Amino acid sequence: MVWLGILLISFLSYAFGPHEALDCLGCHSPHYAKAYKLFKVKNEVYPNPRTGKPIDGISALCLGCHNLEKFGGVNIRPIFLHMTHPVNIKPNPKIAQVPPKLLRDGKLQCVSCHDPHPSNPNWKYLRVSTKGGTQVGKFCAVCHPAKVDFKYYNLTSKEDIKIFSSMNESAGAKEFSLTDPDLTIENPTPDYIKPFGEYKNSLSPAYMYVPNQPWIYSPDPKNLPPALRELLKEISQEGSR
Ligand code: HEC
Ligand code: HEC
Ligand code: HEC
Ligand code: HEC
After folding, report:
1. b/e code 153-182 from CB counts within 10 Å (16+ = b)
2. Which ligand places an atom closest to the C-alpha of 102?
């Protein structure tokens, strides 16, 4: 809990969002990834209350941090799906008109609403600028336009709403119109990561902690996955001979 306090204090005084301090390695691990896109954490236990099945796809990555440890996260701003806007589901088109590009395999996911990369300047890493959370209706209008008074936000139609994305390196991190062919939120690649035994999200192997982040710590060797523990034992015995 101390690190949480430190994070909060340090971020209230800067214009950066909190993901900046993860310094890439909080979410991605170039050499010890647990999931898709070199992701370092993944929630494998938390069920989706709408489907009763474990959460799947990209949302499982966010929930690898954003839930309590007993529910598969690492206690950072827990998001409890049983009291959250529906997620990880195929939308009923009468409830929401989601632009197809914002869906992943036809499903609404955390990244349909958020672009988590530090380059996203928007409040709460939302895909739409809400002027610091004072024009949230503009964001809801992307999928629930029939509910929104467009005049109130000086918009004439849904086409006026701009979507932030960092997912097209050719175009750069910026806002795109919904009809812009450069608007990309996904570049699918095969999931080739095969985790080397199971380990808790909070206990990544010792050599991959982030130096300036006290909360991503080196674990006690006894908490390492058995396969890695054996390997390290062999290596250290060889070294001491
Ligand atoms: C809060 C977590 C988080 C942080 C911090 C983060 N990323 Fe990501 N990154 C993601 C997620 C989630 C994806 C997968 C996006 C997707 O497929 O929708 C991703 C995907 C990527 C990709 C693959 C892009 C693609 O087209 O598939 C690259 C490259 C990347 N990140 C680089 C970085 C770099 C560099 C940093 C540090 C500046 C960083 N990320 C910080 C969450 C994060
Ligand atoms: C490696 C852990 C980690 C992962 C994975 C992660 N986050 Fe975060 N996130 C954090 C931390 C740390 C904070 C700051 C917590 C605090 O200040 O209390 C945060 C804060 C946030 C916030 C609040 C930002 C603000 O300005 O208040 C949002 C929104 C968010 N995360 C969304 C996401 C989404 C969406 C994903 C998945 C794409 C994701 N996060 C994945 C660590 C993570
Ligand atoms: C990226 C698209 C998207 C955005 C943005 C979005 N929603 Fe939704 N919303 C959905 C989808 C998809 C559903 C679920 C439809 C279904 O049940 O099949 C939904 C459902 C809902 C429901 C009904 C929940 C239920 O239990 O049936 C409410 C209320 C709602 N959204 C409110 C909001 C509000 C308020 C905002 C803005 C803060 C918002 N939504 C932003 C896509 C979105
Ligand atoms: C329909 C759009 C939508 C979806 C889907 C969505 N979020 Fe959010 N999220 C929001 C909005 C709007 C806010 C800002 C309002 C608030 O803080 O409650 C927010 C805020 C947050 C915060 C900050 C909470 C805080 O205490 O400030 C976190 C963390 C977060 N989301 C993570 C997630 C994760 C993880 C998922 C997927 C499991 C997710 N979001 C899915 C719209 C969404």
Report:
1. bebeeeeebbbbbbebeeeebebbebebee
2. 3
- pTM comes to 0.89
Final residue before a domain boundary, out of 191, 211, 232:
191
Looking up tokens 């600028």 gives: 129
Domain residue limits at 25: 1-83+196-241
State if residue 143 touches ligand 1 by the CB under 6 angstroms criterion: no
100 in the same domain as 146: yes
Is residue 7 helix, strand or coil?
helix
Any atom of ligand 1 within 6 Å of the Cβ of 28: yes
Only one residue has tokens 């197809």, namely 100
CA 185 / ligand 4 centre spacing (Å): 17
* Nearest-angstrom CA–CA distance, 218 and 62: 21
Q: What is the pLDDT of residues 93-145, one digit of tens each?
A: 999 999 999 999 999 999 999 999 999 999 999 999 999 999 999 999 999 99
